[in-house]
Specification:
The chain is mostly beta strands. It has two helices and 16 strands.
Length: 228
C-alpha cells in the first residue's frame, strides 16, 4: 500500500512540475546538499633547498572528501544569475610517493580547505520550463588551513607544514528541476583551477622541502533548493 502511495505521489509531481514557474529576474535561490571534491592533482618533484640535494623526485597526492555545501544565487535577469558556492571545510590526507629510494615516501599529514567560488550563470531555457539546465564560469579563492604533520613524518623530523592559498578560475554545468514554484532538485559539476605550493621543514636534515601542486578538482553536488 505504501509503495502504491509513493508511486502515485511521484506521478503527481511529474504531472504537476511542468506547470510551475521557474527562475525569473529578482529571484533568490538557496541550494543545499552533499558536495564531493575529487582531486586530479599533478605535481612537481619534491625539491630541497640544500645544494647537491635539490631534487628528490616523487610527487604529492591528496585524498578526496565529501561535505555539506550551500549555494546562493540571485537572478539578474530571467536567464542570467550570480552564484556563490560555499561549504563546510574539506579535509584531505596528503601523501608523498615515488621519491628517490623511497626516502620521503608515506603519509605526510593532512590539511583543510575552503573553496568559495563566485560565478556568472546562464540559463538558456524559457522561465516556464520546469527543467532548467545552466552553465557558468567565475573565480575561485581556495583557503588552506589547519595543516598537520602525521605522526610518522614527525618521528622523521618533519614539521612546519604550510600550503599557500590559491586564486583560480572555475567552470560549471548543472540543472534545476522544479518540483513546485519554490522547491527544486539540483545537480551540478564544477571544475576548479587550484594551483598551490606546499612546504615542510626537516629538522633532522636541516632542510626545507617544497612541491608545486595543481589540484584541479572536479566538484560534484547533489541537493535541494528553495526559491524566494
Amino acid at each position: 500500500m505504501r509503495t502504491t502511495l509513493f508511486a502515485t505521489s511521484l506521478l503527481a509531481l511529474a504531472i504537476a512540475a511542468p506547470s510551475v514557474q521557474a527562475h525569473q529576474a529578482g529571484d533568490i535561490i538557496v541550494r543545499a546538499g552533499a558536495v564531493t571534491v575529487q582531486t586530479h592533482e599533478s605535481t612537481s618533484n619534491i625539491k630541497l633547498d640544500r645544494p647537491g640535494y635539490a631534487n628528490l623526485g616523487g610527487k604529492a597526492t591528496l585524498g578526496n572528501d565529501t561535505q555539506l555545501a550551500l549555494n546562493f544565487a540571485y537572478m539578474v535577469t530571467d536567464n542570467i544569475g550570480i552564484e556563490l558556492l560555499a561549504a563546510t571545510p574539506f579535509s584531505h590526507d596528503v601523501s608523498i610517493k615515488g621519491t628517490a629510494g623511497g626516502i620521503a615516501d608515506g603519509k605526510l599529514g593532512s590539511l583543510k580547505h575552503l573553496p568559495p567560488t563566485l560565478s556568472a550563470v546562464y540559463y538558456p531555457l524559457d522561465k516556464a520550463s520546469a527543467f532548467q539546465p545552466y552553465v557558468g564560469a567565475g573565480i575561485n579563492y581556495t583557503w588552506f588551513f589547519d595543516e598537520k604533520v602525521g605522526s610518522s613524518a614527525t618521528a622523521g623530523g618533519v614539521d612546519n607544514f604550510r600550503v599557500n592559498n590559491s586564486w583560480g578560475w572555475a567552470a560549471q554545468v548543472g540543472a534545476d528541476y522544479m518540483l513546485t514554484d519554490n522547491i527544486m532538485i539540483n545537480g551540478q559539476i564544477r571544475y576548479i583551477d587550484i594551483d598551490t605550493t606546499a612546504y615542510v621543514n626537516n629538522n633532522a636534515l636541516s632542510v626545507r622541502a617544497k612541491v608545486d601542486v595543481d589540484v584541479n578538482p572536479y566538484v560534484y553536488m547533489l541537493g535541494l533548493g528553495y526559491k524566494f
